[in-house]
């Protein structure tokens, strides 16, 4: 009787142990999926199509890297100035948002190798008298996306009295809308993004030169990764290297009409 009872207890115990082991296996498998955050109003890098689906060069690139390295990516959207805090707090693993590496950001997140060089320029309405920064003055209003390095460049110019007001907005599309409505005189940002808007509405806008305070090194875009996950950073860098070698990167550049880095 005691022997039979002992066997039953042993079987139950073994069953519990197996259940725990299986559950643990399931949890370890979940580490193959990472949460990437972005701000979806920055075409051609990231935006939403008519069906509300996230699309863009950055989206395709991170998916190609993930496929190469054998992990999955779950995309989430939020305001640009919330991206770094989200990763630092552990609410996300990656930032894929046309973000450039700066000393201040590097204190909070790690950055991958660069994947794009985006110059910083102005865009104005086609009938504007502004053709370069030299045509701006203390009355000029310039719209920019909040939390970007472009915003920092403009604030330097504002302090120098070369422009009047820096209008910082959450979404880049709102910056362009304010330009169209005449609420601001210019919009500032990455050249590929300005090109995207100009190509959508030919003859509506024009470029107005480069931002003089922009640092050329700050124009290099990279993928941000949590400082707590060196393994993921290695995967991202290896995946980026692989997709550049196998031709995937060049295909994505052609698809989205951008000029990629020279990686030959």
UniProtKB/TrEMBL annotation:
Presence of keyword Cell cycle: no
Keywords associated with the record: Signal
Protein name as it appears in the record: Basic amino acid ABC transporter substrate-binding protein
Biological classification of the source: Bacteria, Bacillati, Bacillota, Clostridia, Peptostreptococcales
Pfam short name (any one): SBP_bac_3
Solute-binding protein family 3/N-terminal domain sequence ranges: 33-260
InterPro entries, A to Z: Solute-binding_3/MltF_N
Signal peptide: 1-23
